[in-house]
Amino acid sequence: MCCDLKRRFLLLYATQKGQAKAIAEEICQQAGAHGLEADMYCLSEMDKYNLETEKDPVVIVISTTGTGDPPDTARKFVKKIQDKALPPDHFAHLQYGLLGLGDSEYTFFCNGGKTVDRRLQELGAQHFYDTGLADDCVGLELVVDPWIDGLWLALKEVFLLQKEKKGMSSDAVSRSPSAALHVGHELNLNSEVQNLKLEDERVTSSAVLTQKTADIHHVASTRDTEPSLVHSVPPVSQSALNIPALPPEYIEVEFQDTHGENPHLSSLIPEGKIFEVPVTKAVQLTRGDAIKTALLLELDTADTVFDYQPGDAFCVICPNNVSEVEELLQILGLSDKGEYFVCVNVKQGTKKKGATRPQHIPERSTLKFILTWCLEIRAIPKKAFLRALVECTNDVGEKRRLQELCSRQGASDYTSFIRDSNVCLLDLLHAFPSCKPSLNLLIEHLPKLQARSYSVSSSNLYQPGKLCFVFNIVEFPACPTRPVSRKGVCTGWLAELVAPLLHPSKSTLDRKGGSYTTEKISIFARPHNTFHLPADPSVPFMMVGPGTGISPFIGFLQHRQKLREEHTDWEFGETWLFFGCRHQDRDYLFKQLRCFLENGTLTHLKVCFSRDSSTAEVAPPKYVQDVIRLYAKEVARVLLKERGYFYICGDKKHMADGVSDAVVDILSMVMEVDKLEAMKILAMLREEKRYLQDVWS
C-alpha cells in the first residue's frame, strides 16, 4: 500500500465524545502536505487493520473516559491485547507513537492511553516517537499542536531507516542536523511545549498570514487596552499568524419535503437498549434562597427490564434548548425550513480522505430534529471550526479576530475567551454578526449531542420498579462573552419538564381525569464497574458525599436497610457517612438520614456546614475533609486493620482532592511514615478497589 510518492502509516483512534477522532482527522489531513499518506480507522474497526502483520509505523490517538477507562470504542481492542497468553514479542515488529487525551482533574489522568501504551510495550512494540499526554484541564492544544508538529520528522526518520535497511539510497530524504537532533525526540510534552520551535520548514498545512493591522483596517479604540472575545491587543494584533489549514468540506445537505417521520431516539444511541420511562415524582430538596437548586426525580421502571445496582450510573437522552434551536435557525436564515426533511450525504469529490456521514446524523430527518437531538450546539468550538468560520465571515476585522483565535499566536486568547468562558456557536454568531456559516459546516464541525450521565440514588431492592436521581440545575450566568444566562442543557430541560410536578396548578391538570400529564424521558444503563457496596456485608465502609455527591449513598443505605430487614442473621459492618453543604437550613438535602441512623443502618453520621456562622469558642469544621481529620484513628482502623472500603462522590477539584490529602495525612500520622510512603499506601488501596471515587469537575 506504500508507493514511491506517498509513504504510508496507519492512524488509529478511539474516542468517547469526538475529541480523539477530530485530532486524528487533523493528522490525516496534514499528512498529505508532508508527502505522507494515513490509513485512518477507529480502533473498534478491527476487521480493517491488523497490527499483527503491520509493517508501517502506527500512530494512535486515544482518549480516557469515566474514572480512567479506555473509551467504549477501544474496549474490544484493549481486551484483545490484554490476553495473557500473548508472548512478550507479539508486537516486536511494531513501531508506534501514541497521543493520549485526558483531564488532570481526574485521578487516573490519560489512563486510557497509558493502558494501551504500557501493554504494547509489554508485548515488544517500540516507540518511534515519544508518547504525548494532553490535558483538557489546561487545554489539549498545548500538547497536541507541538506533538503533531514533531510527528512528521519522526515519521520521516522511520521511513529513512527502513530505506537504509533495504539498501536503498537515502538521498530522497533531507537530514538536517536539526532533524537528526529532533529524531532523538527528547520532547518534554507538558505545559512547556508551547516553547517548542521546530526547524522543519513550514508547509502548506499551516498558512502564514502577514497582514498588519493597518492593512486590514483593524484599528482599535484607545479605550480597548484589554483583549476580549472580539478584540485583540499587541502582540497578537500585530503578529503574523500561523493558522490551521482549512478543513475540506465533505458534507452536502439536500432539502426535501415536510412529509415523513423522524427516526426514533433509540437509533441515536447504538451503545445499548433505550427505555422510555415516566417521571412520577419531583421534589426540590433545597430551599428557595439556596445558592444552587437541587431536584430529586423519581422514574417508574416497573414496566421495563431496566436493572441497576446502587452506585451505578445511567444516561438521560436530552434535547437542546428549543429557543436556542429557533435562534440558530433564524441566524442561519432557515426559520422556514425547520420542519423540512433533509438528506445528509458525503459530498462528491471531497478532498477529505475516508469521509463518511457522521454516525449521529440520520440519513433522513427534519432540520429541527438534527439541531435538537443530534448536534451539541452548546459545544465549545474547536480551532478547526473557527478556521472554517473565517471563510464564512465578511467583515475584515471580524475575520482577522477569528484567525487570531485559531492561531498559535492567539492560543492564550482562545483559552481565555472561548474555552474557559464556555463560549458556544450562538455566542460566536452574536459576537461576529457577519459570520454566516452553511448548514453543512455545522454538521461537519459540531459534535454529537451526548446523553448526560447521573448517579442512581435509590435501590431496586428497597423500591422495586423505581429509580431516583438527584442533580443541581446548572447555571451559566451572563458575562462579557455570553450576553444571556443559560441553564445546563439537560438539567435545564429536566427542570422545565417537571415544573408541573414541582408547582402544580389547575392549568396543569388533565381535563378528563383531573390527574397530571405524565412526562416521559429516555434513558439507558451505564453500569459502574466498581462503585458498588462491598460483596461481604460484614466489611465496614465509609462514604464521603457533600452536596449532590450524597446521591449514590442514599441508594447504598436503602439497600443496606432492606438487607438488614431480610437477613436478621447476617453480620453487618459499621457504616460512616460524611456529608456537608453550605447552610443547614437551606441545602441539607436529605434530613431523613437521621432515620437510617436511628434504625441502625447508618452507624455514624458526621455533617458540616461551610457557610453557617458559629458562636462557639472553637469553630466547627467547615468541610468534609476537615471532619475526616477529626476521625483519623477510625479512618485508619477501617482502611488498614479491618480492610474496609472508602467511597467519595462529588466535586473533584474542590473536594475529592482535599479528602485524598486528608487520608494521606492520616495514613502518614497513624503509620508513622513519610508522606510519599502514605501516598503509596493510598495508591495500593485504589489498586485493590477499596478507595473508590465517582467524581466530576
What does this structure look like?
- The chain has 697 residues and is of the alpha/beta class.
- Among the domains are: 7-163, Rossmann fold (3-Layer(aba) Sandwich); 541-695, 3-Layer(aba) Sandwich (Rossmann fold).
- It has 21 helices and 24 strands.
- The strands form 6 sheets. Strands 1, 2, 3, 4, 5 and 6 form a 6-stranded parallel β-sheet that branches.
- Strand 4 (95-102), helix 3 and strand 5 (126-127) form a beta-alpha-beta unit.
- The longest helix is centred in the N-terminal third of the chain and has 25 residues, at 141-165.
- The chain is globular.
- It starts with 6 loop residues before the first strand and ends with a strand.
Poorly predicted segments: 1-5, 168-223
What is the CATH superfamily classification of the domain at 7-163?
A: Flavodoxin domain
- How many DSSP-defined strands? 24
User: How much of the polypeptide forms β-strand, as a percent range?
Assistant: 15-25%
Summarize the biggest pleated sheet.
Answer: 6 strands, parallel
Q: Quote the average pLDDT.
A: 87
- The CATH class designation of the domain at 7-163 is Alpha Beta
The number of helical elements comes to 21
- CATH architecture call of the domain at 7-163: 3-Layer(aba) Sandwich
Helix content class: 25-40%
CATH topology of the domain at 7-163: Rossmann fold
